[in-house]
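During data preparation, a discrete fold description was generated, and the record follows.
___
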Amino acid sequence: MSKGVDTDCVFQQPVHGIPGVIRQDDGTVHWRLWAPKHDSVSLVIDPEGQRTRHVMSVDGHGYHRFAADGVPEGARYVFRLADGREFPDPASRWQPDGVHSPSAVFFPETYRWSDASWPGVSRADLVIYELHVGTFTAEGTFDAVGSRLAELKDLGVTAIELMPVAQFAGDRNWGYDGVYPYAVQNSYGGPRALQRLVDRAHQVGLAVILDVVYNHFGPEGNYLGSFGHYFTDRYHTPWGDGVNFDGPWSDAVRQLVVENARMWVRDFHVDGLRLDAVHAIYDFGAHPILAELQAHVQQIARQQTRTVHVIAESNQNDVRLIDSPSRHGLGLDGVWSDDFHHSVRTLLTGDLEGYYQDFGRVEHLAKAYERVFAYDGCYSPFRKRRHGNRVEDRDRTRFVVCVHNHDQIGNRALGDRSATYLSQPAQRLACGLLLISPCIPMLFMGEEYAEPHPFPFFCSFGDRELIEAVRQGRREEFAALDFQWGDQIPDPQDRATFESAKLTWQWPEGTFHANLRRLYRDLLAARRQWPALRDRQHTTAGVLAATEDDRHATPLLWVQRGQTPCITMIANLSSDQRPLPDLDRTDRLWIFSTESTEYGGLRALAGEPVDLLPYEMLIFGEKETT
């Protein structure tokens, strides 16, 4: 009788070990480098200015190894090729002197965590706050972020989402040009400071989600291609050749990414990963890299007995990203829905250029509330084809929505925030529209108090040709708007552009800034306390046609949340005062208005409204709390 086939061997933990530097329990330090392009690689260690060179052993799969005792944390090292060139470790855990300098040994396991009882934050309770470490505070460090966490907790935020912190060239960048996926940006404080920040966040009661980039690597300091077959010209992204996830030699590339995701959860205790632009990750293998990554991340989460979320950024409107493998999906925990942002933005600003041309009607926003995707298989004029698929009964807590994020601000010509071009009532309405959504809300740093400083694109490359290419790219991107912006487009390389993005952190009492922050705080409290808002599965929405006397006006939006009890929201998305329609509101009084005087509006707290103020959202129902 023959033995059965070992069907589990294909997807077991990779057999070649974790890339980079690992210290074993006996204190021995092991280096592993995948460099199939080279038959011989030497490790040069320089712990105290005494360079020692060691020829590494190599196997038939291109893995080079070396082990040594007594190597201290912080010891510098490089890999030397047969032709004499020396490079940092592509899986470096620490680049204290930048992307072109030697790597440094880092032992993450020596940090003493104080979060053993931390369970994480459930998906239903997520309120995400996206922030950029370098501009969130004047200091621009992880430790400085930690000093602001209590204020975010008071606001009602439950998770911070850090824009990418993997090592990039220079000391200022959005983070999407990272070239060392395992190393933590030195100008932010390095890996130990990130561990302190996560630990501090858990003490305060906040989860930490990390934005990670696996669809491309940055241009400067990117030495991956010098070692192995990390890239492929079979696929192209907006940033160059695709990452090799399914071609020859791709096993090691997949391992690099999967182990990186495991590292953030295992060694830094992060509570989630936001996967950047997964629509630019090309993988036509039988076992998709995103599904493999999720399986390994959740394995670590179970070992640490806490909740960890893997959320995809995608413009595909594709529920297969969150469907379970049994439904032929990838099994991720959540996915972005851009349609909500685009619907709100076009209605409040009138912007209809580019992909915004698919939006601009109240019906789009109503559908985004009720069905999540406004484009769920229907025809997209911008794409000139059908787009998306249907959400149907899938859990609304699997979708992340926003009215601001780093892209939608920073990719404007000036990086200007809505605080500079929307009226105060319109900004209050945007807050209300976001926070009554059944989906997971995400705020971008400073939006809660109408931060006036911009968030433009910035960088600090060292290569002159690259610097000019980036400048030229920004000019060409906004060439059609030159008649309006001219020479005002900020120079991304100029330090002043970076400094201009630093938050003011000011909301003096009695000002619009303080009143708006109070509105955010109160509505976030309502999301926690009102049963109708905690019910994420029962949302209906539609438009209220204008009356005969009001037939040329913008239709009103209505949204009903919950079942028993339920609330009804009516929103005026225009700058005109509008008559309040005669809805069935038997025994119901209005319980909330974004235009209440306590938020700086004109709606008195007493009296039954008969009109909707410009850009007002009124809520009717029962103000019961759980």
In short: The longest helix spans residues 250-268. Confidence is low (pLDDT under 50) at residues 10-15. Residues 531-621 form a domain with the Immunoglobulin-like fold (CATH 2.60.40). The first strand starts at residue 20 and ends at 23.
